[in-house]
Amino acid sequence: MAKKVTMQKIADHLGVSKFVVSKSLSGKGGVNETTRERVIQAASQLGYFTQKNAYVQSIKRTAQGVGSDRNKQSVLVLMPNIRSQTQDSLYWGKIVDGIALALDNEGLGMVIVSEHRADNFVNILNPNGILGLVGVGQISTSLLLEVHRIGLPMVLIDHEDPLIPSDTVFANNVDSMSRLSNHLMGTGHTLLHFIGNIRYSRSFRDRWIGFRSALEESGMRLPMEDDEMLFLEGMDDGSFRDEFRNWINKRKKAKTLPTALICANDFIALTVSEVLKEDGFTLPDDISVTGFDNIEDASRGVPPLTTVHVPKEAMGRAAVEKLLSRIHNPSAPLEKILISADIVHRESVIEPRG
């Protein structure tokens, strides 16, 4: 039988005091961020978070709590106001709509919190009045640690943390992007390029993996690992325009223009399309462009954007269903739920010129 992982064991592993470990795991001050991260990482590697009753506070959330008195219960929706993660977003807002509808059908309330600092989050959190948490988008490890510390059941949408165990809900990014890439190759494209920062999020990285695997299986040439278009900054506000413009014009002068650009999401694709048209390219005659997510603006592009439809409301509903299931069965294995996503064919893709 494996020995229990204690705070002292973590302290010995790192060569620090048990006091430092306790401060780091409790979310209290007095420990710098670098040390806190080292403690959290070591605790995760040693299995501290996965053992039962490791350090979480005991909060009663039984099946009865999701029953006759459920109208008195609420679910916390945590969507830190970073990047473009707001209710007004054409992507994130639809996910929140799905959460709200699913909770309403269950007679449950919803409390939306956009806090992104762990210390402020602790001050506003009342675990006794919250049934569970649905996290939407990128959330810091320190925030998730606080949720885990108090024993609040949680499900994350479009995000996962390697240090904090939880159920997650994603679109099936790898398979969907692979199908989209194969469609382009089937149309005749042999010079394809991925546009987006593959370190930006788990979804972007998975979309890159789907693109790369499709090209590898077809024997196509891949972008270099240090290609600047794989590490774009400023994707939330479109400030990558100049970087992309310089890159595409270099490719034009070198006569190595891609025949198709596969973008990590629709906003990138629409911004790329604008830059191309400003620089005299005709779309899709000169270059085909695709997106991902199928936000409302995708169909309004000129030309309308071929993309992948992510069922955003369905992801929200699936997260609520998983959260309620987790509350009923807290010891069940953690799950990563993948929601199928389909290609939407529009006018931004044609056969490449001979």
How does this model look, in words?
Keywords: DNA-binding, Repressor, Transcription, Transcription regulation. It comes from Paenibacillus monticola. Pfam families: LacI (PF00356), Peripla_BP_3 (PF13377). By secondary structure, this protein is of the alpha/beta class. The protein is built from eleven helices and eleven strands. It has three domains: 40 residues, no CATH class; 136 residues, Rossmann fold; 139 residues, Rossmann fold, CATH 3.40.50. It has a six-stranded parallel sheet, with helices on one face.
Mean pLDDT: 86
CATH domain fold name of the largest domain: Rossmann fold
Radius of gyration: 23 Å
Assess the beta-strand content as a share of residues: 5-15%
Assembly state of the chains shown: single chain
Just name the CATH architecture of the largest domain: 3-Layer(aba) Sandwich
Helix content: 25-40%
> What is the CA-CA span between the terminal residues?
67 Å
- Could you tell me the number of beta strands? 11
- The tally of domains stands at 3
Supply the CATH class of the largest domain: Alpha Beta
SSE succession: HHHEHEHEHEEHEHHEHEEHEE
Spatial ordering of strands, largest sheet: 2-1-3-4-5-10
Structural class comes to alpha/beta
